[in-house]
Amino acid sequence: MVNKIQKILKNKYTILLIVFTLVALWPFFKHSFFESHDGEWMIIRFSAFHQALVSGQFPVRYVDRLNNNYGYPVLNFLYPLPFYLAEIPKLLGFNFTNSIKIIFAVSTLVSTLAMFAALSQRFSRGASFVGSFVYLFIPYRFVDLYVRGSLGENLSFAIIPLALLSIFKIAKNSHIFYPFLSISVALLILSHNVIAFLFLPVLTAISLIEIKKDKIKALFAIILGVLMSTFFWFPALYDLQYVRLSQMRVANPIEHLIPLTKIIYSQWNFGSVPGQLNGFSAQLGVITALMICISIFIKIRKKDYSKLETFAIVVIIVSAFLISDVSSVVWKKIPLIDIIQFPWRLLSLVVFSTAILSAYCIEKINKPILTVGIVFLVFALVISYTKPKGFLNYPDSYYSTNEASTTVLDEYMPLWVKGNPQRVYSKIIPGLFSISGSIIKSADYSVRINVWEDTKLKIATIYFPGFIATIDGKPTPISYDSDGLINIQLPKGDHEVIIKYGKSPIHLASELISLTASFIVGILFFRLWQKQNS
Question: 82, 125, 119, 168: which is closest to 352 by C-alpha?
Fold first, then answer.
């Protein structure tokens, strides 16, 4: 292991990539956090996630503190992986803010090195260096880091190259990477729902392009990865019928299209809607336009019909079209395309494809001066984008006690909740009873109660499928009132009442599928490892 580490450190390209990445991440090394659209929400959400996890809820789906302490099922629907990973630095003693900053920074570094490792399977190390450098130093990556503060998207950029690496390895008959392809697909789905929706077809297409034999095995590996993450995405799809999002739009995609004149380059800003006054820049970037032109020139001049690079060109052109305002009719007509919500999310495909084309151009031209020139040009064009709008000096307690819902329109509020609940200070709403003892944890309440006459126990927690209740150890039905709050019918007498967020049949079924798929992947890896070492 020591020899391997020494070998990595001796690699000049690896060291350069680490240095450049640390330069790009300089705001994360400051004591304070910085302003962004979602960054602070990530800290708030993680602190609520942590409270639910240490209370015994696993997987975490319902966070008790959010939504003014009435509870909110946000993690039943939104990517959980960043928060499970953030538990590692939290366990090591870091606070909530620094734990999230660490996941941002580490995933950014891993994304650069992982892309270098992937591209090195197909291109020279110098070309791979440029491709991985471009993979980070491209405008949209800094939109994610310093404008939007999208933790899930940033993490997905670290996982996508791992899937690409697995595909390239399999294409070279290294069959032990089939399980790694499955794992990377599962992690991608858990890192960001929409990015996975965009990239699964792309990764599948690359598998079919690159893997000459056993294409079916590659498809099976991808399917296994999807099944491994069933515990997350299946309940999210099923339970969507219960929340406001099923009856509303978070955003109108057409309002987020970019004027054609601003596709290549636009002024850097921090507003929420690109294309509007002070809106953030949803540009492809000058380097993308340059790589497209050079790649097409090389293909025509050298009659190069390599499929991967041609596919990357097509992905960029199609993405650019769908991001621009000339595609408005498409967004109105194509079914399911609204899942993307914001057209500029297609820039993630542009980032990925531009990295591949950059390595391709350097490989084909093979002139050191071009390598230096592109690195210098890219660095000079985008290094100013690493400056956030401003820095914040809130203590960690500001985030760990914040009770916002952490979503734009409270779109994951159950349909039976009318209005938006205000701050609640007591979980147990007073009634015809006296309480002799209680243990209140996150979405897990235990109450010893003396009921004077038959009545209802009302809990200041919004009901969502998965909550279960017992009276004196016996299951009892849960209802909810006009405010959506949990109600339980209690008979007269002394009772022990336990109410907790558990597992619905859908949760149990989806977790069983995930465990089965994971077991198959584990067996597959063990057998391939045995075969490789026999």
Answer: 119
